[in-house]
Amino acid sequence: MDIKIFFDSQSIAVIGASGDKSKVGHSLVANLLDKKGRKIYPVTLNEKEILGLPTFTSVLDIPGEVELAIIAVKAEVVPQILSDCGRKQIPNAIVISSGFKEMGRRGKELEDEISRIAKEQNIALIGPNCLGVIDTKNDFNASFSAQKPLTGSIAFLSQSGALGTAMIDWAIQEGIGFSKFISLGNEAQLTEIDFLEYLENDPETSSIIMYLENINDGPKFLETVKRITSKKPVVVIKAGMGNHGNLAVMSHTGSLAPQPVVFIAACKQAGAATVSSVRGVFNIVKILSQTGYVDDPIQRLIILTNGGGPSVIAADLIDRSQSLSLSVLNEDIKENLRKVLPPMAAIGNPIDIIGDALAERYDKALDILSKVDDADAIMVILTPQMMTDAVGTAKVLAKYKGKKMIFPVFIGGHSIQDGREELINSGLAHFAFPRDVIDSLDYLARNSSKIKHFFGHNFGHHGESTGVSSIGEMVEFTKTISLLLEYGISVNGKFITKKEDLAETVASCGEGPYTMKAISKEVVHKTEKGAVRLNISNLDEAGFIWEELWTKIPAVEGILVQKMEKGKEIIIGMKRDNTFGPTILFGLGGIFAEAIKDTALRIAPIEKKEALKMMQEIKGIKILQGMRGESSIDFDLLADILVNLSSLALAHPEIKEIDLNPVIVTENFATIVDARIMI
Fold first, then answer.
1. Which region among 221-225, 234-238, 273-277, 398-402 has the lowest average model confidence (pLDDT)?
2. CA–CA separation, 382 vs 304, rounded Å?
3. Would you say the C-alpha torsion 415, 442, 272, 651 has a positive or negative sign?
């Protein structure tokens, strides 16, 4: 399969071509004719000539070789057309037509049929229900987009044609170019992974933006993205990030690891940034168009402004960010600024050159600030005041392009529009508000792989996932204990089913106090059902509680007798995600698990150093590290449990969820107090 042909075919058949300008088939031919030299073959039953080109009634009538077929006919006709393409030995096809799985059962059957035909005929297939593809460098527009993107270095993949056209339209207005535009449609054959693998080594592409509604192969997606992010930034817009469609689950782990959170964690683990809003991705695209692929994060900022209010807001936003900071200007820089700026100017950071600043004053300040080593970028704020020269200031900013990273923030409407247009003409991205710059830089710094150093394990398939479409069944506790122990995970205490074993069990626990727990498949949250008894001091009390638990708790399998341990409570768990497979969870445990929901996630497999890093991500990390004289917990012991749990989940694809809650940890031990496995 040669993906490159989709972006530079020399002979193209358009099936469903039309002379009617309102039809998709007309737009396809017209867009392909933008560049001379290619052989375009319109195929239609209704017309003899389209846009000066002779037509054909079938692809089989076309003389010579055809590299690409673009199909825009009724869905029910597509299988026959695709079969004809196979007989013609056309290696690549784009199915524009809609009416497939997005339309229900019959549409799904049609889509399965064209997928089968494409496989049998060795046809690489994009779509159906897509917009097409565009390569700006080759001036190749195999789409029905009303506009062609400007030339640039950002590739955009989209499972939504509508969002794709909106992105193109917006980018033209902003002066931002793309290397390639790929509308994936329903992905009957070729998926986002196929094109990611191509773009990985595409010299014309420096960064990749994706809009995804679903992922076909989670482990392969992560493996591919992780490899790409060592070379190029990847940003993902993910639809369906709400929890409305998620089923209720029985375990703590299930409730704390909903699908959207898993997706975000998976992308972060692979080095990609995830964005949930269109505005957010637009701003990130602007940043990437300006910065490209940089070795170090943009974190240290200088603010240059003609208005105090916006600069104060910007400074506050930087202070509240997780990764950005204001550069500290030394006295030499401040003295140089004082020499060229009015006495009323604020010489610090932010630098306020006051409201009457003309373009010349911006120029003098930038001449000094562009040489500051302790700064990655300068955010230049302009507000429309009586003396403001937006166009002149824009021209000044263009002078410093290449000397220092400049992020213009032109706040206002009509009065500064000419200035914005001048920025676009100069190849400088502009922003409406300081937050647009700060949030985007902060997000990229926290999520992109050039800033984060990810780990060397491979993602891959390890058995077939059973999915999480149903709640499942709880495994018998004896089997749960045995399976966990097989992977080096031991549950505290002894599980017994006969009262006559109670005396020996209590004695083996050593000095009290003790805990007794009734184990039942019908009781998930034991504390809420009175199935847990604490601070049992002796055997007589234990005997009394045994009778009470055995008679009051339904369907008791047995009693878990434990020595009470004091320490921090942790939850560790696994939930098998439909897309990505086993997801490992870590967070504060006990009653705090549901109340706070402070967790970190990883996709299995994980290594120990990643497990250690994972634990550092929760907001409650300071509690575990020790506060006010308390000792830090043993993170190494917890990391071993996380790694072992990862191995267990990969080896047993029938397991849907594992819940270890709580895990009691101190500075010198980690003990699992309760465990649950769902299949």
1. 273-277
2. 9
3. negative
Residues of the chain with CATH 3.40.50.720: 3-205
Q: How far is 95 from 657, CA to CA, in rounded Å?
A: 40
Residue percentage of the chain with pLDDT more than 90: 58
Rounded-to-integer distance, Cα 645 and Cα 675, Å: 12
CATH architecture of 3-205: 3-Layer(aba) Sandwich (3.40)
**Cα–Cα distances in angstroms (integers) from residue 420 to residues 171, 231, 317, 563, in the given order:** 14, 32, 23, 70
Q: Tell me if residue 436 falls in helix, strand or coil.
A: helix
Q: At what angle do helices 434-447 and 278-291 cross, to 10 degrees?
A: 80
Phi/psi for 153 (5° steps) reads -120, 10
Query: What is the identity of the amino acid at 11?
Result: S
Q: Which of 46, 37, 39, 1 is nearest to 19 (CA)?
A: 46
* Nearest-angstrom CA–CA distance, 395 and 426: 8
What is the pLDDT averaged over residues 657-679? Answer: 89
> Structurally, what CATH architecture does the domain formed by 298-447 represent?
3-Layer(aba) Sandwich (3.40)
Cα 12 to Cα 130: distance, rounded to the nearest angstrom: 17
Q: d(Cα 142, Cα 164) in Å, to the nearest integer?
A: 14
Residues comprising the chain, all counted: 679
Instruction: Quick: pLDDT tens for 252-263.
Output: 444 444 467 788
Q: Up-side HSE of residue 537: CA atoms within 13 Å toward CB?
A: 0
Distance from C-alpha of 25 to C-alpha of 31, rounded to nearest angstrom: 10
Which homologous superfamily does the CATH classification assign to the domain defined by 493-563? ATP-grasp fold, A domain (3.30.1490.20)
Q: Are 675 and 660 in contact (CB under 8 A)?
A: yes
Cβ-count burial 537-571 (b if 16+ within 10 Å, e if not): eeeebbeebbeebeeebeebbbbbbbbbbebbbbb
What are the residue ranges of CATH 3.30.470.20 in the chain? 568-678
Quote the pLDDT of residue 467: 34
**Cβ proximity of 288 and 207 under 8 Å:** yes
Cα(670)–Cα(565) distance, integer angstroms: 10
In the structure encoding, which two tokens stand for residue 434, read together? 């300081």
- Beta bridge partners of residue 300, listed in sequence order: 325
Cα 299 to chain center, whole Å?
21
User: Is 296 strand, coil or helix?
Assistant: coil
Q: pTM, whole model, 2 decimals?
A: 0.75
Q: What CATH code would you report for 568-678?
A: 3.30.470.20
Ordered strands of the 68-71 beta sheet: 39-43, 11-15, 68-71, 92-95, 124-126
Q: Reduce the DSSP state of residue 401 to 3 states and report it.
A: coil
CA dihedral sign of residues 256, 258, 263, 264: negative
Alpha-carbon torsion, ordered 160, 163, 168, 172, to 10 deg: -170
Q: Tell me the pLDDT band of 654, cut-offs 50, 70 and 90.
A: very high
Write out the residue limits of the CATH 3.30.1490.20 domain(s) in the chain: 493-563
> Residues near 330 by Cβ (< 8 Å), separated by ≥ 6?
none
Q: Phi and psi of 472, rounded to 5°?
A: 90, -165
Cα 95 from Cα 32, distance rounded (Å): 16
Burial of 380 (0-12, 13-18, 19+ CB in 10 A): buried
- Relative to beta strand 234-238, strand 325-326 is unpaired
pLDDT of residue 560: 93
